[in-house]
């Protein structure tokens, strides 16, 4: 039976320059590989060691990139290793199969959202009306499924975020603050539901997951084993669960550690070989 690895990407496996957390002396900093270019500029990185580990993982397990990014945003990323057959985008709203969105899955998700929570238009209107233009830089809607704001974090009133979370909770939505983005996402829109669907299709009998944000909590809880880095929303709130391991590493080196954990749990040592029998 295959092992399924569903991993968040941003600030879990890949990192912007601002999120690298290179706290060591410059001469000891790891070599980096650019894995995303946007508008002709490098945007996201992983260490070269992490790139090799991810290539090994692609041979050892069914690796499923699992992200809140839209399909278009995800497809800017050029990950090393075998091209994943499956990818989960838009927080579970899009299930890509060989790069193409599965229409049946998308239809099932949108029907569930219409039945269980307030419409996107209501939430979007509230965000536009209630957010302070002093700290809001952009309003965005992702794949007609959820909304988010890009903000100036140093100017943001975090009490406003808490009030937004209460307002959203009463309408079947959840709020997550990740770096410079405030996400408003319908509760039924989950990465875990899409992961379970991929596990069903592939026949996986072991599921592994990693993530750093509140939107990854359901994914980590649904997996047989999970890991979170020492940074992000989950670390900030000291969130954990019985099958989830909190790692001490922060920044881009956490990506390396997570990939090593995936390989070990999948029964492979770094380099692609199975561990020696004892």
Folded structure, characterized:
- The protein has 278 residues and is of the alpha/beta class.
- The longest helix has 14 residues.
- A 5-stranded parallel β-sheet has the order 4-1-12-13-14, sandwiched between helices. Strands 8-9-11-10 form a 4-stranded antiparallel β-sheet. It has a 3-stranded antiparallel β-sheet with strand order 5-6-7, covered by helices on one side.
- The chain has 9 helices and 14 strands.
- The C terminus is likely disordered.
- 32% of the residues lie in helices and 25% in strands.
- The chain starts with a strand and ends in a 13-residue tail after the last helix.
- Helix 1 runs parallel beside helix 9.
Distance between the termini: 22 Å
Q: Point out poorly predicted stretches.
A: 272-278
Question: What is the strand tally?
Answer: 14
Global geometry? globular
Q: Sheet with the most strands?
A: 5 strands, parallel
Radius of gyration: 18 Å
Strand content: 25-35%
- The residue fraction in helices comes out at 25-40%
Return the average pLDDT rounded to an integer. 94
By secondary-structure content and strand pairing, the structural class works out as alpha/beta
Task: Give the topology string: H per helix, E per strand.
Answer: EEEHEHEEEHHEEHEEHEHEHEH
Order of strands across the biggest sheet?
A: 4-1-12-13-14
Continuous helix count: 9
């Amino acid at each position: 039976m295959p092992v399924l690895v569903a991993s968040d990407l941003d600030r879990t496996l890949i990192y912007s320059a601002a999120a690298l957390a290179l706290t060591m002396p410059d001469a000891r900093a790891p070599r980096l590989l650019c894995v995303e270019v946007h508008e002709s500029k490098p945007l996201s990185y992983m260490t070269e060691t992490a790139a090799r580990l991810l290539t090994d993982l692609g041979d050892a397990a069914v690796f499923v990139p699992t992200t809140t990014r839209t399909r278009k945003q995800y497809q800017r990323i050029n990950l090393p290793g075998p091209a994943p057959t499956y990818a989960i985008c838009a927080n579970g709203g899009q299930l890509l199969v060989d790069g193409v969105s599965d229409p049946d899955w998308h239809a099932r998700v949108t029907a569930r959202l219409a039945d269980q929570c307030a419409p996107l238009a209501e939430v979007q209107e509230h965000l536009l009306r209630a957010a302070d233009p002093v700290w809001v830089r952009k309003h965005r809607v992702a794949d007609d499924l959820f909304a988010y704001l890009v903000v100036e974090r140093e100017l943001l009133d975090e009490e406003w975020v808490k009030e937004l979370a209460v307002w959203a909770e009463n309408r079947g939505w959840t709020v997550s603050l990740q770096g410079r983005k405030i996400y408003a996402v319908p509760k039924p829109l989950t990465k875990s539901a899409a992961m379970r669907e991929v596990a069903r299709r592939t026949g996986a009998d072991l599921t592994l997951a990693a993530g750093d944000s509140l939107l990854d909590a359901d994914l980590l809880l649904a997996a047989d084993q999970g890991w979170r880095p020492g940074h992000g929303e989950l670390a900030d709130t000291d969130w954990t669960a019985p099958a989830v391991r909190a790692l001490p590493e922060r920044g881009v080196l956490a990506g390396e550690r997570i990939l090593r954990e995936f390989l070990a749990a999948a029964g492979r040592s770094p380099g692609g070989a199975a561990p020696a029998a004892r």
